[in-house]
Design goal:
The protein is α/β, with parallel strands linked by helices. Helices cover 43% and strands 22% of the residues.
């Protein structure tokens, strides 16, 4: 999996932003460009208007609300 993510990052460059909620596991967080709570991550991604792909690695309870 690490290799596939590295290839995708290389191919997409600045067009890809990965956000990791701080409740996520370390195995997921290691790929994140930014980490924090939902509010902080929303602010961070706004700095990347050129991003075509935003991957938000959230947590289950966030998907329920």
């Amino acid at each position: 999996m690490d290799r596939r993510i590295a290839v995708a990052r290389a191919k997409l460059g600045r067009r890809l932003v990965i956000l990791g909620h701080h409740y996520q596991r370390d195995e997921v967080i290691k790929f994140a460009d930014y980490t924090g709570d939902s509010y902080k991550l929303a602010g961070q991604v706004s700095r990347h208007p050129d991003a075509d792909f935003i991957v938000f690695c959230g947590v289950h309870f966030m998907a329920e609300s």
